[in-house]
Amino acid sequence: MTRGRTWLELIRDRSRKQGLYDSPGYWDMKATAYSGLARSNWPSNAYNREVHRRQMAVLDRLLGDVRGRRVADVGCGTGRASHHLARRGARVTGWDFSPKAVEAAAGEARAEGLSAEFQVGNVREPFPAELHGAFDAVVVIGCLTLACRDTAELDQALGHLAALPARGAKLVLIEPLHESRLLRRILRLSVDGLVERASRLGLDLVHREGLFFFPARYALAFRELPDAIVRPAVEVGERVLGVSPALERLGDYKVVAFTRR
């Protein structure tokens, strides 16, 4: 649900990605002009609920039991992954370059009494040295392809991320990785390109898969439809992706998990 946002404004936002999505001001606006999960995701909260549910299921599957573990959530937005992991017992630190998003994330964590803290920070800038190797897991959702405008900035950001997990710990990326101009956010990059760059930084691939059949996103993400329509439509799309690993490219998001050597 939006307040005062028209379809024309939404279309305009999608058409001018660079200089908008990579700006803290845009996400400050989202955190205050939208409600629910739409504060840091799509306009449709019915679609967002499915996105959130499936992304969190991926994290649960890949990270396992997080009780007592220290987890970094980089590009945390309004904190939906941070809150989920903290509810499962993790000690979470979240960063985002949007002060308003950080404020919203911290407020919800305080209200629930969650073990989660939030700071303003940009993945393109290095993390403090005392945090290097300090985390049992690192998660990044929809951050790199928005914050990084080219592969030079990606290499810089990946270097900063690779410093955070302890040896043997996982770094889980859930990113809209695309080379096509139609589907990409700001950064144009394939999964293979990301894996190659990560390997140079001491990160070993342990898992990859496609997530969210992209035609379903175009049909469902921009208008509020009943859950009774959205949920089965998303399920059909995910079944298509599950037919073969070769269909990974049809996923709007890609899950790419690494362990640090």
Q: How would you explain this protein's 3D organization?
A:
The chain has 261 residues and is α/β, with parallel strands linked by helices. The protein has one domain (7-260): 3-Layer(aba) Sandwich (Rossmann fold), CATH 3.40.50. Helices cover 41% and strands 21% of the residues. The protein has helices at 7-15, 24-33, 45-63, 80-87, 99-112, 144-147, 151-162, 191-200, 214-220, 227-241; strands at residues 70-74, 91-96, 116-120, 135-141, 165-175, 203-213, 251-260. It has a seven-stranded mixed β-sheet, with helices on both faces. Helix 5 (99-112) links the parallel strand 2 and strand 3. The model is unreliable at 1-7 (pLDDT under 50).
Q: What is the count of helical runs?
A: 10
**Percent of residues in helices:** 40-55%
The computed structural class is alpha/beta
Radius of gyration, whole Å: 17 Å
The fourth-level CATH homologous superfamily is Vaccinia Virus protein VP39
Strand order of the largest sheet: 3-2-1-4-5-7-6
The shape, in one word, is globular
Topology:
Layout lengths: L6 H9 L8 H10 L11 H19 L6 E5 L5 H8 L3 E6 L2 H14 L3 E5 L14 E7 L2 H4 L3 H12 L2 E11 L15 H10 L2 E11 H7 L6 H15 L9 E10 L1
Parallel strand pairs: 1-2, 1-4, 2-3, 4-5
Antiparallel strand pairs: 5-7, 6-7
Helix pairs in contact: 2-5, 9-10
Features:
disordered N terminus; alpha/beta; 261 residues; Rossmann fold; 7 strands
